[in-house]
Design goal:
By secondary structure, the protein is an all-alpha fold. The N and C termini lie far apart (39 Å).
Length: 79
């Protein structure tokens, strides 16, 4: 296989992947799924964030949800 042909196939593959990603369904979160206190931080990109609150306030659920949402949106935070 020639180099030009490899490049062309790679471009076709990249275009098909981009098309598939654009066609992914939107994720809808119901009201009350995340504690409203934490909503301002859903897209915060501050390097260090410290969350503290009482027990059963939803910190762990919020942070796990935010990690999943970041991954689904392709956001990566490298050290």
């Amino acid at each position: 296989m020639t180099e030009a042909r490899r490049v062309k196939e790679g471009q076709r593959l990249a275009e098909s992947i981009i098309k598939e990603v654009k066609e992914l369904p939107r994720l809808k979160l119901h009201d009350g799924f995340i504690n409203p206190v934490y909503l301002p931080y859903i897209s915060d990109t501050t390097r260090v964030q410290i969350f503290f609150d009482g027990s059963s306030s939803g910190k762990s659920v919020f942070l796990a949800t935010r990690c999943v949402l970041d991954a689904l949106q392709g956001r990566r935070y490298a050290p």
